[in-house]
Each structure stands twice: as structure tokens, then as C-alpha cells.
Amino acid sequence: MKTLYVMDPLDRIDLSGDSTYVMILDGHSRGWSAHACTPAQLYSVDGDGYARCAPVQVAQHGVPLQAGPAVDLPLGAFDVVWMRKDPPFDMEYVFATYLLDLVPPSTLVLNDPRGLRDANEKMVVLKWPDLCPPTLVTRDIQRAIDWTGDAPGKVVLKPWDGNGGRGVVVSQAGDGNLRALLEMLTDEQRTHVVMQHFIPEIRQGDKRVVLIDGEVAGWMTRIPQPGDHRGNMHVGAQVEGCELDDRDREICATIGPWLKDRGLVFVGIDIIGPYLTEINVTSPTGIQEINALMGLQLEATLSEAVLRHLDHHRKGA
């Protein structure tokens, strides 16, 4: 099987924590070939999709990916194309999904480009408002200030298109910095900001649950650093094992069928206390950390799901 990974540059890969890295490694163990490119290297000629991509090899875990000379190949030369580019989910990202729409029927794209466009990671949770904390999405600064004044305590402000905890801040009514924070995050009311009631249970951790094909496959919790409020590994949160409670499983059972129906095969959701806060579909991570905590091989589970989808996809094509 031939796989193309549309991703960030290879020199940005963290060998000890990158999920795409172990996905490639598992594919190599199965005899699958892998190529890699960035979204900027996708292009189209007369309605056909192409990529300027390099073959990549990896001998064993802990060894960096080795890239060969770049070549131009049609997207139809691959059995599977993985979209694994990190956010921001901006128009460049959206445009890359348009190019991935040009694959022929014989090629499977994961996660499905239409699903990626439908499931903005900060906004899609609002399809299930009963699962989420009270949330405001606005670019109007005075509306945001008034909403904060009605909140029972602190509020969280975050960009709608970011990842890894970048730009996420906590404020509250009476904070002299609130208006300035809103001015920066909304770019002077030119872009929307997502605001949610602060969830005190963040002190016990931010659960990351990986769903494969809409089913729970593994989980962990991320404990913020002392003095920080963000449960993101990118900013130093520590990972620990945990158990899923009834509410966690209710959340997964509620959203799982919707994710599966939209071709979102590899998803990582975030749960704080009783609330769903994000659904990560662009390049979810956590495979290596969950494997270590739970004794799993999620990359192998994912490869088996890919094989099932590819078989179904070709029968449908």
C-alpha cells in the first residue's frame, strides 16, 4: 500500500511524541511505502491533483525519518492520503482540502476533507450544547465584556483556529486587562473569539480521548503545570493515566456516530470535568503517550481501520 502524508516539515517532528511518526513506522512494519509533502506542495493540473513529495523511510522507533529526492506524483498514485497538517485552520488549510477533493475514486483521503471543513475544532462542539460549558462566540468586544459580567466566575478566551493551547487566556469581570485581551484576540473586532465559562476541574486534568472510527480507543489526562491553566502537552502539561467515567462515555457515544459518518477516522476529543471542550480532527496527537500509559498500539489499531475503510471505499467506488 502506498500512503502520502500531507504534514508539517519533517524536521519539526518530535520523535518521542509525534503521532504521524508512529503511523508511518507502523506502515513500514507492514511493508507499506510512505511519501510526505506539505500543503504548499499540493497542486492541480486540468482538474487532477498532484503533490511534490518525497519518499520517507524509518528503520526503527527513535530514528529520524529519512527523506529521498522529491518527485511529482498524481494523488491517484496513492492508496491513502493522510491530511496531518497542524492548525491554524485558516484559508490555506481549507484550500488544501479543496485540492484533496480532487483525488480519484480509487484513493482514500483521511480524515475526509469534507469532514475537516465541517468540524472546526473549537466550533463543532456547539452542535451538542448540552455537552459543552456555556459558550459565547463573538467579535463584538462589548458583548464579550457584558457576557463575562454575567458569568459566575472566570472565563476562558481562545482563538477559534488555534491549537496546542496557544493564545488561550483566563480572565473575569473586573479584570483591567479584559478589554485589551479582547482587542488582541479579536484583532480589533475583525475576527471572532471563543469564550467559555472556566471549568475548575481543569486542576484535575484535561482528558484526551482518542476515537478511531467513532469508537473509544484510548485515553489519558493532561495535568497543567503549576500556575498554568492549559492542559496541553505543547505548553508543558504532564500526562497521567486515568479512568473514563459515565459522563465521558456518554459524550463519546453521542458524538461517535456523527464523526464516523463524516469520515473522521482519527479524532482526539478533550473533556474537562463534565464538559466536552474540543473535537480535534486535523492532526490529533496522543498516540505515543496513551500507548505508554495503557500498553496499547493505537497506530496498529488505526492501520487496521484504514484497511477496512479502503476496502469499503473501493467497493463503493
Question: What does this molecule look like?
Answer:
- Helix content is about 30%, strand content about 25%.
- It contains eight helices and 17 strands.
- Helix 1 packs across helix 8.
- The mean pLDDT is about 95.
The biggest sheet amounts to:
8 strands, mixed
The number of helices is 8
Distance between the termini: 17 Å
Gyration radius, to the nearest Å? 20 Å
Structural category is alpha+beta
Q: How much beta, percentage-wise? A: 25-35%
- The beta-strand count equals 17
CATH class identity of the largest domain: Alpha Beta
Order of helices and strands: EHEEEEEEHEHEHEEHEEEEHEEHH
Whole-number mean pLDDT: 94
How many domain modules? 3
Determine the CATH topology of the largest domain: Rossmann fold
Q: Percent of residues in helical segments? A: 25-40%
Q: Just name the CATH architecture of the largest domain.
A: 3-Layer(aba) Sandwich
Low-confidence stretches: none
Shape: globular
